[in-house]
Amino acid sequence: MTEKKTSVRHEVKSSVKDESLIEKRRDQMIRGAVKLFREKGFHRTTTREIAKEAGFSIGTLYEYIRTKEDVLYLVCDRIYEEVHDRLAPLAEQQGTIKGLKNAIRLYIETIDEMDDEFTVMYQETKSLPKAALSYVLEKELEMAGLFERMLAGCSEAGEITLSEKEARLGAHHIIVQGQMWAFRRWTLRKQFTLREFIDMLTDQLLYGVAGRPQKGEVK
User: Fold this and answer.
1) Which UniProt keywords apply (predicted)?
2) Contact status, residue 42 vs residue 19, Cβ threshold 8 Å
Protein backbone atom coordinates (compact mmCIF):
# COMPACT_ATOMS: atom_id res chain seq x y z
CA MET A 1 0.00 0.00 0.00
CA THR A 2 1.14 3.56 -0.65
CA GLU A 3 2.98 5.00 2.35
CA LYS A 4 0.95 7.71 4.05
CA LYS A 5 2.56 11.15 3.79
CA THR A 6 2.03 14.14 6.05
CA SER A 7 1.63 17.41 4.19
CA VAL A 8 3.45 20.55 5.28
CA ARG A 9 0.70 23.13 5.62
CA HIS A 10 1.00 26.21 3.43
CA GLU A 11 0.99 29.35 5.58
CA VAL A 12 -1.35 32.23 4.82
CA LYS A 13 -0.01 35.18 6.78
CA SER A 14 -2.21 37.54 8.79
CA SER A 15 -1.43 40.68 10.75
CA VAL A 16 -4.30 39.81 13.14
CA LYS A 17 -3.47 37.67 16.18
CA ASP A 18 -6.99 36.68 17.28
CA GLU A 19 -7.41 33.16 15.86
CA SER A 20 -11.19 33.14 16.24
CA LEU A 21 -11.46 36.44 14.37
CA ILE A 22 -9.12 35.16 11.65
CA GLU A 23 -11.33 32.10 11.18
CA LYS A 24 -14.50 34.22 11.09
CA ARG A 25 -13.15 36.73 8.57
CA ARG A 26 -11.61 34.07 6.34
CA ASP A 27 -14.86 32.15 6.34
CA GLN A 28 -16.58 35.31 5.05
CA MET A 29 -13.88 35.69 2.39
CA ILE A 30 -14.22 32.08 1.27
CA ARG A 31 -18.00 32.37 0.86
CA GLY A 32 -17.69 35.61 -1.07
CA ALA A 33 -14.79 34.41 -3.22
CA VAL A 34 -16.46 31.10 -4.15
CA LYS A 35 -19.55 32.96 -5.36
CA LEU A 36 -17.44 35.32 -7.48
CA PHE A 37 -15.07 32.62 -8.79
CA ARG A 38 -18.09 30.61 -9.94
CA GLU A 39 -19.69 33.61 -11.64
CA LYS A 40 -16.63 35.33 -13.13
CA GLY A 41 -13.69 32.95 -12.82
CA PHE A 42 -10.60 33.40 -10.67
CA HIS A 43 -8.65 35.68 -13.01
CA ARG A 44 -11.52 38.11 -13.65
CA THR A 45 -12.31 38.50 -9.95
CA THR A 46 -10.49 41.22 -8.00
CA THR A 47 -9.59 41.29 -4.32
CA ARG A 48 -11.68 44.46 -4.00
CA GLU A 49 -14.72 42.54 -5.25
CA ILE A 50 -14.01 39.72 -2.80
CA ALA A 51 -13.82 42.22 0.07
CA LYS A 52 -17.12 43.83 -0.96
CA GLU A 53 -18.86 40.44 -1.31
CA ALA A 54 -17.50 39.43 2.11
CA GLY A 55 -18.86 42.61 3.67
CA PHE A 56 -15.76 44.58 4.59
CA SER A 57 -13.15 46.95 3.14
CA ILE A 58 -10.17 46.06 0.98
CA GLY A 59 -7.95 47.25 3.84
CA THR A 60 -9.56 44.78 6.23
CA LEU A 61 -9.18 41.99 3.66
CA TYR A 62 -5.42 42.52 3.50
CA GLU A 63 -5.17 42.12 7.27
CA TYR A 64 -6.10 38.45 6.81
CA ILE A 65 -4.56 37.48 3.47
CA ARG A 66 -1.82 38.82 1.21
CA THR A 67 -2.94 37.80 -2.29
CA LYS A 68 -5.99 36.59 -4.20
CA GLU A 69 -4.21 33.23 -4.49
CA ASP A 70 -4.31 33.01 -0.69
CA VAL A 71 -8.10 33.04 -0.83
CA LEU A 72 -8.14 30.28 -3.46
CA TYR A 73 -5.81 28.22 -1.30
CA LEU A 74 -8.11 28.70 1.71
CA VAL A 75 -11.04 27.39 -0.37
CA CYS A 76 -9.09 24.22 -1.21
CA ASP A 77 -7.85 23.73 2.34
CA ARG A 78 -11.36 24.11 3.75
CA ILE A 79 -12.57 21.25 1.54
CA TYR A 80 -9.87 18.83 2.68
CA GLU A 81 -10.34 19.77 6.34
CA GLU A 82 -14.07 19.13 6.08
CA VAL A 83 -13.65 15.76 4.35
CA HIS A 84 -11.00 14.66 6.86
CA ASP A 85 -13.04 15.75 9.90
CA ARG A 86 -16.08 13.83 8.69
CA LEU A 87 -14.33 10.66 7.59
CA ALA A 88 -11.66 10.32 10.30
CA PRO A 89 -14.09 8.91 12.91
CA LEU A 90 -14.77 5.99 10.55
CA ALA A 91 -11.21 4.68 10.97
CA GLU A 92 -12.48 2.19 13.55
CA GLN A 93 -14.74 0.69 10.89
CA GLN A 94 -11.81 0.14 8.53
CA GLY A 95 -11.93 -3.33 7.06
CA THR A 96 -15.71 -3.52 6.80
CA ILE A 97 -17.98 -2.93 3.81
CA LYS A 98 -20.31 -1.03 6.14
CA GLY A 99 -17.52 1.37 7.06
CA LEU A 100 -16.56 1.82 3.41
CA LYS A 101 -20.16 2.56 2.42
CA ASN A 102 -20.49 5.05 5.28
CA ALA A 103 -17.30 6.79 4.14
CA ILE A 104 -18.54 7.05 0.56
CA ARG A 105 -21.87 8.41 1.79
CA LEU A 106 -20.24 11.06 4.01
CA TYR A 107 -17.85 12.02 1.23
CA ILE A 108 -20.66 12.60 -1.29
CA GLU A 109 -22.80 14.40 1.30
CA THR A 110 -19.85 16.74 1.85
CA ILE A 111 -19.63 17.33 -1.91
CA ASP A 112 -23.36 18.11 -1.93
CA GLU A 113 -22.92 20.73 0.80
CA MET A 114 -19.75 22.19 -0.76
CA ASP A 115 -20.48 21.71 -4.45
CA ASP A 116 -19.45 25.25 -5.42
CA GLU A 117 -16.18 24.90 -3.49
CA PHE A 118 -15.36 21.60 -5.18
CA THR A 119 -16.09 23.04 -8.61
CA VAL A 120 -13.95 26.12 -7.98
CA MET A 121 -11.10 24.01 -6.65
CA TYR A 122 -10.87 21.87 -9.76
CA GLN A 123 -11.40 24.73 -12.17
CA GLU A 124 -8.90 27.12 -10.59
CA THR A 125 -6.28 25.09 -8.66
CA LYS A 126 -3.79 25.62 -11.50
CA SER A 127 -3.65 29.31 -10.52
CA LEU A 128 -2.10 28.55 -7.12
CA PRO A 129 1.60 29.32 -6.53
CA LYS A 130 3.88 26.27 -6.57
CA ALA A 131 4.16 25.74 -2.80
CA ALA A 132 0.41 26.01 -2.24
CA LEU A 133 -0.33 23.79 -5.24
CA SER A 134 2.04 21.10 -3.94
CA TYR A 135 0.25 21.11 -0.60
CA VAL A 136 -3.20 20.87 -2.24
CA LEU A 137 -2.11 17.96 -4.45
CA GLU A 138 -0.65 16.15 -1.43
CA LYS A 139 -3.95 16.63 0.43
CA GLU A 140 -5.76 15.16 -2.58
CA LEU A 141 -3.54 12.08 -2.36
CA GLU A 142 -4.15 11.84 1.38
CA MET A 143 -7.90 11.83 0.72
CA ALA A 144 -7.46 9.05 -1.83
CA GLY A 145 -5.20 7.24 0.64
CA LEU A 146 -8.02 7.11 3.18
CA PHE A 147 -10.23 5.20 0.75
CA GLU A 148 -7.30 3.06 -0.36
CA ARG A 149 -6.70 1.92 3.22
CA MET A 150 -10.40 1.15 3.64
CA LEU A 151 -10.47 -0.91 0.45
CA ALA A 152 -7.28 -2.73 1.43
CA GLY A 153 -8.73 -3.39 4.88
CA CYS A 154 -11.86 -4.91 3.37
CA SER A 155 -9.68 -7.09 1.15
CA GLU A 156 -7.57 -8.25 4.11
CA ALA A 157 -10.77 -9.07 6.01
CA GLY A 158 -11.97 -11.20 3.10
CA GLU A 159 -15.00 -9.03 2.34
CA ILE A 160 -13.73 -8.21 -1.16
CA THR A 161 -10.80 -9.35 -3.28
CA LEU A 162 -8.43 -6.63 -4.48
CA SER A 163 -4.74 -6.40 -5.21
CA GLU A 164 -2.75 -3.44 -3.87
CA LYS A 165 -2.91 -1.68 -7.24
CA GLU A 166 -6.62 -2.37 -7.58
CA ALA A 167 -7.25 -0.83 -4.15
CA ARG A 168 -5.23 2.22 -5.17
CA LEU A 169 -7.15 2.66 -8.43
CA GLY A 170 -10.43 1.99 -6.67
CA ALA A 171 -9.73 4.82 -4.23
CA HIS A 172 -9.25 7.29 -7.08
CA HIS A 173 -12.44 5.93 -8.66
CA ILE A 174 -14.37 6.82 -5.50
CA ILE A 175 -12.86 10.31 -5.36
CA VAL A 176 -13.60 11.15 -9.00
CA GLN A 177 -16.98 9.43 -9.35
CA GLY A 178 -18.28 11.07 -6.18
CA GLN A 179 -17.42 14.49 -7.57
CA MET A 180 -19.82 13.95 -10.46
CA TRP A 181 -22.50 15.20 -8.09
CA ALA A 182 -20.86 18.64 -8.24
CA PHE A 183 -19.57 18.69 -11.83
CA ARG A 184 -22.70 17.28 -13.48
CA ARG A 185 -25.28 18.69 -11.13
CA TRP A 186 -26.96 20.44 -14.07
CA THR A 187 -28.38 17.07 -15.14
CA LEU A 188 -27.93 14.57 -12.29
CA ARG A 189 -30.04 16.55 -9.82
CA LYS A 190 -32.94 16.54 -12.25
CA GLN A 191 -32.87 12.74 -12.42
CA PHE A 192 -31.74 11.52 -8.98
CA THR A 193 -32.17 12.45 -5.35
CA LEU A 194 -28.96 12.64 -3.33
CA ARG A 195 -29.87 9.35 -1.63
CA GLU A 196 -30.49 7.62 -4.96
CA PHE A 197 -27.21 8.90 -6.36
CA ILE A 198 -25.23 7.72 -3.33
CA ASP A 199 -26.85 4.28 -3.25
CA MET A 200 -26.59 3.63 -6.98
CA LEU A 201 -23.04 4.97 -7.29
CA THR A 202 -21.90 2.95 -4.27
CA ASP A 203 -23.33 -0.23 -5.79
CA GLN A 204 -21.64 0.49 -9.12
CA LEU A 205 -18.31 1.22 -7.42
CA LEU A 206 -18.46 -2.00 -5.40
CA TYR A 207 -20.19 -4.34 -7.85
CA GLY A 208 -19.69 -2.80 -11.30
CA VAL A 209 -22.06 -1.13 -13.73
CA ALA A 210 -23.80 -4.48 -14.34
CA GLY A 211 -24.98 -4.37 -10.72
CA ARG A 212 -24.98 -6.90 -7.91
CA PRO A 213 -24.49 -10.54 -8.90
CA GLN A 214 -27.74 -12.49 -9.14
CA LYS A 215 -28.38 -15.38 -6.79
CA GLY A 216 -26.25 -18.33 -7.74
CA GLU A 217 -23.74 -16.24 -9.74
CA VAL A 218 -20.08 -16.03 -8.80
CA LYS A 219 -18.99 -12.64 -7.46
Assistant:
1) DNA-binding
2) no
**Domain 69-207, what fold?**
Tetracycline Repressor; domain 2 (1.10.357)
Rounded distance between C-alpha atoms, residue 213 and residue 219, angstroms: 6
CATH 1.10.357.10 maps onto the chain at: 69-207
Chain-centroid distance, C-alpha 115: 9
d(CA 48, CA 53): 9
Task: Count other C-beta atoms under 10 Å from residue 123's C-beta.
Answer: 14
Task: Tell me the pLDDT tens digit for each residue of 161-218.
Answer: 999 999 999 999 999 999 999 999 999 999 999 999 999 999 999 988 765 555 555 4
> What are the tens digits of pLDDT across the range 85-124?
998 888 777 789 999 999 999 999 999 999 999 999 989 9
Q: Which residues belong to CATH 1.10.10.60 in the chain?
A: 13-66
